[in-house]
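Below is a filled-in request sheet from our internal design queue. Each sheet records the structural input a requester submitted and the sequence that came back. We keep these sheets so that new team members can see what a complete request looks like end to end.

REQUESTER: design group, bay 2
PRIORITY: normal
MODE: inverse folding
CHAIN LENGTH: 173
BACKBONE (tokenized):
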């Protein structure tokens, strides 16, 4: 169920335990690794990290996430020095139509500017902005928008199976 987009937190061969009832009693929080239904195509479940909750103001400058005006400490974030250049890792959100990328979900590209205020994305109510930990290799909210609360299935808890036996039992946070 995991993918390269969550390295090094999760490896593609990892299998995880997910609490499917967690969010019945708890609020989705920044830093949670969530399992959710992809907002557009008929696609399998996705897994990403919540970096923005409703009302947050978010931007990315030079591979650094700024949340509500403050630089975030993200020890889980990985930046691949050998990856091809991704402009959204150096300046996000776009502020002009010529800054949109062809890799964006068309529906999100058509509406993103409604959420951009003062050079930041404002996360809408009942929505969550998610990123993969492997920032250079993640198709995430930068490219298809925030995740609706109703599309979130559960919270990732720990790795229960992996080709790398040293990863088994590791908590996901």
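RETURNED SEQUENCE:
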């Amino acid at each position: 169920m995991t993918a390269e987009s969550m390295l090094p937190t999760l490896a593609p061969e990892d299998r995880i335990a997910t609490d499917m009832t967690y969010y019945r009693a708890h609020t989705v929080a920044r830093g949670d690794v969530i399992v959710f239904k992809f907002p557009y195509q008929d696609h399998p479940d996705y897994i990403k990290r919540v970096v923005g909750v409703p009302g947050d103001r978010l931007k990315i400058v030079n591979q650094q996430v700024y949340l509500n005006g403050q630089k975030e400490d993200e020890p889980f974030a990985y930046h691949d020095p050998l990856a091809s250049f991704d402009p959204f890792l150096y300046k996000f959100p776009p502020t002009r139509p010529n800054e949109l990328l062809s890799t964006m979900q068309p529906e999100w590209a058509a509406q993103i500017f409604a959420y951009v205020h003062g050079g930041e994305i404002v996360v809408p109510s009942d929505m969550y902005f998610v990123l993969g930990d492997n920032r250079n290799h993640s198709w995430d909210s930068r490219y298809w928008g925030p995740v609706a609360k109703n599309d979130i299935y559960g919270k990732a808890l720990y790795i229960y199976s992996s080709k790398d036996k040293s990863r088994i039992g590791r908590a996901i946070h």
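SHEET NOTES:
- The chain has one domain: 4-167.
- The chain has a mean pLDDT of 95.
FILED BY: M.R.
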